[in-house]
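Example record

One chain of 206 residues, shown exactly as stored in the release files.
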Amino acid sequence: ETGLHGCVSPPLRWEDALSRLLSESPELAAAAAEVRATRWAAQRARVQWIPNVNVQATIQYDNANRSDITGVGVALPLPLFDRNQGNILAADARLLAAQRNWERVRLSLQDRLAEVFRQYASARQQVEKYRNSILPDAKETLELVSSGYQQGEFSYLILLTAQRTYFQSNLAYLESLLRLKLAEAQVEGLLLGGSLNGPSEGAMVR
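Predicted structure tokens for this chain:
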């Protein structure tokens, strides 16, 4: 039984798994890069507009005063305060779409992890139930029945029933261990499948 108990890995923590998935996911990293690119484009659109200003000097002769009149003409594009609004609005729309896509990817990753983590938590709970109650109870019952059988208190049929219950409990425990290992592999597979060679800033976009 010690060997069986030694097969159980330390419990996985949801917070650690989620943090690792979000920080190492190439999907989220790509979405974050798109947010940064569209934010830069939106900022650039706001400072890109420089008006075309045409300045012209004019000289006219005033017959009444018999003198020259000088002046300066300034030509500005119309509308005067149109700071490339069309491009700005389009850039803002692309930024908003990128931010929403980042949030969609993040929620999708979280949901996928939650699903496999629920399976893992259920499998681990079952293993703990066998380790902490079912197996000890079955073992204690078998020991009591065996002792009683040797003293003539129980029949051989009762002894066989206790033995069968104990062995069936151990078999079920091994099956629950297998389910736990498979669930752990699913969690780890999702984490590895969503990882880059190194940490990314995917989970840091706001």
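Notes: The chain has one domain: 2-204.
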